[in-house]
Every structure is written in structure tokens, then in C-alpha cells.
Amino acid sequence: xxxxxxxxxxxxxxxxxxxxxxxxxxxxxxxxxxxxxxxxxxxxxxxxxxxxxxxxxxxxxxxxxxxxxxxxxxxxxxxxxxxxxxxxxxxxxxxxxxxxxxxxxxxxxxxxxxxxxxxxxxxxxxxxxxxxxxxxxxxxxxxxxxxxxxxxxxxxxxxxxxxxxxxxxxxxxxxxxxxxxxxxxxxxxxxxxxxxxxxxxxxxxxxxxxxxxxxxxxxxxxxxxxxxxxxxxxxxxxxxxxxxxxxxxxxxxxxxxxxxxxxxxxxxxxxxxxxxxxxxxxxxxxxxxxxxxxxxxxxxxxxxxxxxxxxxxxxxxxxxxxxxxxxx
Length: 328
Fold this sequence. Notes:
Layout: H1 3-34, H2 40-48, H3 53-63, H4 69-81, E1 87-88, E2 93-94, H5 95-130, H6 135-149, H7 152-166, H8 185-221, H9 225-232, H10 237-274, H11 280-289, H12 293-321
Antiparallel strand pairs: 1-2
Helix pairs in contact: 1-12, 2-3, 5-6, 5-8, 5-10, 5-12, 6-8, 7-8, 7-10, 8-10, 9-10, 10-11, 10-12, 11-12
């Protein structure tokens, strides 16, 4: 089978598996959120300070919160079937509009953090495998353990103290300089400057994982027969590392990268709160606090779609990296 045919078969298989997965995720998320105490009407009435029982009943009737759970679930599925994520009682806006405002910031933050984690983790893994048992391997291993064990919010606070408070090199919060009026390249550089600290805080935990994983995979690949055969043919050590060892060592890294996308969104909740980053993480946190479950369901559904899409991409990358992976 040709490479294009094999990739097309992989894409078709993963797409068919994704449909029942998404339906199951939607139903489970909806039912689990029904177990949470309170609703948006309670929060809105509490903030008004003088709500009566009649006001509460009117709010619940207006937003359909007084209906049985099954009726609400059917109404929610009907909205999704018509490409609608519902309406937010808190913001008095369609959920899709609110998420669309926050989505670019979170996607940019997650992708930047993932790229930093994969590139830096693989490079450190190559260095560790090349100097296995010697001081560079041991020093990087110590830092990897530290990054893995320290909570992300604490790393974020320490980076703010060092680079914002002490050195004054980078901003401590926000996503751009308010009122600067930057355009084009200057606007892009300004946003990248604000993204350095939150993306680094989000990436360091995964750098540690990918570095250890790449080290172990490369050491294992170096013992394989095809590597010895390549060396016997006269290939240079650099060519053997890039063409044979690194290519196989990337397989477990790409597998975990797809699985970690959901974890990145979870970590973004904390990082976006620490850095006042306007993204889906902060939106989800605010939705929990205000019991705005329509927004929370939209964020959860979108994050599930992102994870499923990332895993489809991982399947395609793995099929491209290793043609021996057969489609079943």
C-alpha cells in the first residue's frame, strides 16, 4: 500500500472512532455537571442581593433550568445538532461567541508550550543519551526531576519574581501592551513577549517528561540491529542518530504529546489565572465559580475535540514515521 493510501486509511479509521467518542463525552459531561450543587440562577440571584423565590423561579424558567435533566439533555443535544453551544446566563451572550473570543489566546499558548516542550525535551533527551552516565546526563536528570515535581503555579510565581519583579525584562501578566497601538510585526513581537513566561511555565513539566522519554527511547534504539547495520555500512554517527535512532525515538514522544494536549488545557487553567491570560482556562474557572454550566460544557466539548484532533494527527505522524505500523 502506498504512503498516501496508508495515511488515508489511518485518517478514516480514527475519524470513525471519534464520532461515538464525542457523543459519549457530551452526555457524560452533561450528567456529571448536573451533580454539582447550585446553578446560574442561584449565583445571579445572590449577586443581586435582593432576589426573592419568585425571581429565582423566573430565572430558572427563563434559562430552562427548571426542566427535568432528561429534557435539558435532549435540548442540549438538539442545540449541538444545529451547531449551537447554547446561551450563557452569566454573559447574556451565545456560548460560541464567548468561546470564540477566548479560544485564540489559549490555542496560541498551548501550541507554543507544546512546541517548547517537544523541541527542548527531545534536544535534552539526545544530550542525555549521548552522555549517558556522565555529568551532563546527571545534571539534566536532576533538573528534569525538579521540573516534574514542582507545581506549575509555583514555577509561574517564581518566574514572575525573577524576570518581572527583579530583572524587569518581561511583563508579569496580560496578553499585550494596552494602548500601545502596535501593528504588524511589532504587535506580534509584543504578544510573544507577553507569552514567554506563561508558555514556559506550562511547558517545563512536559519538558521533563519528553527528555526522560527521548533518552530512554534513544538508548534502546541504539542497541537495535538496524543501527549496527547502518554503522557497518559506514554511515556517520550523526547520520545514524538523525535517520535511524531519532526517528524511532520520536514515536513514544509523539504518542504522549497527543495525550498531553488535554493536560495542557488543564494546566492552562492555573497558568492563565496566575498570568491574567485571557483564555479558555480562565473562562472555565470563571464558569465554575458562576455555575454557568453552558459555558463549561462548551469548553469541555471544545477541549475534547482538540484532544481527539491531536490524536488523529499523532496517528498520521506515527504512520509516516514508521511504515511498519499497520492499520487494523
